[in-house]
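dCMP deaminase, Reichenbachiella agariperforans. Tokens?
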Amino acid sequence: MDKPAFEDIFMELAVNLAKRSHCIKRHVGAVLVKDTRIISIGYNGPPSGTHNCDEEFAGEGCARDSKGSCSLAIHAEQNAILYAVKNKASVEGSTLYVTLSPCLSCARIIFSMGIKEVIYLKSYAEYKGLTSDEGVDFLETFGVKCSKYSGDIAHVTEMI
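Tokens:
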């Protein structure tokens, strides 16, 4: 049996974490890794102890802010970083696997926290209808390596 690459395992975990999201609009998962070890995970949704959008606002989702984004949601990347910091784990020098490339706001946080690499499954720009991935552009400008995932997660879950 061929062993799956760590990159495939981490991206598959991010995909599965996204399924935990309570967001009506979009499910996103994130995994923070350092030296092939998972240091934190996250998915998008409201802060712990507030409303679950798919339960409280089942039809329309939570209220939108002035830019049309969810007013309650914490992005998957933010949740993974916050959980690591809350548990006193350093994210500096880590790699972030995420199912949707970071928005500009998340990119600023990723850079500020010293994360060295971001591997994303899908483009935020394509999802939002933008001309470019502003978050990826920002990160690359300041030396954070970014790449679209090109592996294969389909074979990882096959069991013999």
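The CA atoms of residues 66 and 159 lie 47 Å apart.
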